[in-house]
Amino acid sequence: MRVEYIEFILPVTVGKRLQKEMDSTYLTNDCLIHIFSFFHEDDLIRASYVCKEWHEAAETPWLWRQMCLKRWGFCNISLLATDHGKRAWKCYFLGRSNLEIKMTEGRPGGDYVCKSLRGHKGRVVGCVYLLRNSPQLPDFCSFTPTVCTASSDGTVRAWDVQQGDQLWCSPVQSPLTGMVAGPGGARVFTSDTTGLVKAWDSQSGQEISSYSSASPQCTLLPFHVDASSFLLVGNSQGSVHTLTSPSLSKVSSLVVCDTFKVNLLLASPDKKWILAGTKENMDMSPKVLSSQSATCPSEDEDSLRQCLPVSGCCAASFLPSRPATLATVHCREHSRLRQEKTLSVFNISVKKTRYKSEVQVEQVEKFEVVFESQSSDILLEGMGSGTLVVVADKELRVYTLKGQLLCSFQDHIKPITSVCVDSFRVVTASQDLSLRVLTWKTDGDGGLMLESRYHLLGGSHTMSRGFTHVVCDYSSIVASVEAADGKDVLKAYSFNS
Predict the structure, then answer these.
(1) What CA–CA distances, in Å, run from 196 to 181, 191, 213, 263?
(2) Percent of the chain at pLDDT exceeding 90
(3) Per the database record, which ranges form the F-box domain (predicted)?
């Protein structure tokens, strides 16, 4: 194969290494594959039409696999490296690239379809995915996403996101106050104003079991460890109850913040650690618990919990790729100004001695943050192994763990009420009745940055009061709109693959 045939398609930036490969007059198929690895996908597709040899080289699974791993280092190799067809890697790359372009540009009508999901006669207090699409799957848009919502009207409802249809609705009960989904979305759990916690089958909408917490306000956390499932319930008396799932039988109870409501409750990605505390008392410190102390209580359980060496915690998040690393936003020491906060990063470990094991919390980073607003409603999310997303009032900021401010955005004109963070994008929901979509990119030093892309609008300001919740899967976004007449509506945005 002669070199001159390739000249019209070579990118200018292939560099000296590629030029050296082309010094010979004739190219082998292996050499072509190596050269094609430098191409953009559009150039590679055009190259496949030149001749038979070029077509075979451009269709090589190894080549498309390399392009996938270069662009998405986290895509699932084991699922795609099968013999279902040599075009698996190519189809995955082109399909996922096309979808991400549409999610980046967000043109109404062409890139996505919006459905309004109506049926609730009260305020939406929770929204979770039951069935979601993921980029880790070979066919990342193989599922029809479904979400489940809970409302102050006393009903739980499931919805088809793409069609906008209601799938089922529970019988009316006391006004609901919260909802979470169990692992895999097979079950959902709700709490109501009487303190009754219930488990529901997500396929049929049938009630499975119930538990009375005797608390008008509960914070729920589903928990799966060592092939066993649990539900943690934080109550308004400062205790955390551990229940089996889905039978909701009580396993243990421990006091975290006596007389104050437990409204800070989260688990590490590997389920080894639990953070529990309150945002109501600025003098109290949250506690880090070993999951063993909650699910398998013993006489020595005090050694498996430890207070964070900070007080007045208003937000916290574990790092997805560093499950033993915890970030918190809390009161600045000796400061009485609510807008002056400190962001601290802790490493959690267990120190084992001959007779017992003890939880240890080490503060590894600390930096000051100042917000324009005095609001205590701060949202904190971790991304990867070293990036933090902080939201306060109308502003979104991205920090490194060492406190370097990477970027900040003020795209909304009213406060942000909810944020959803995944490996591709960040979506913020605001009282200004808009969602803002931002996408991740890698900067020149290999760090993560955000780019602000576009708004998704939620309807008329005369009929609505703004967004209150937002959740996402890989191909869709669902958000709840607070309606002026008290009958909240869901807005479902499905992107075309």
Answers:
(1) 16, 6, 6, 17
(2) 58
(3) 21-67
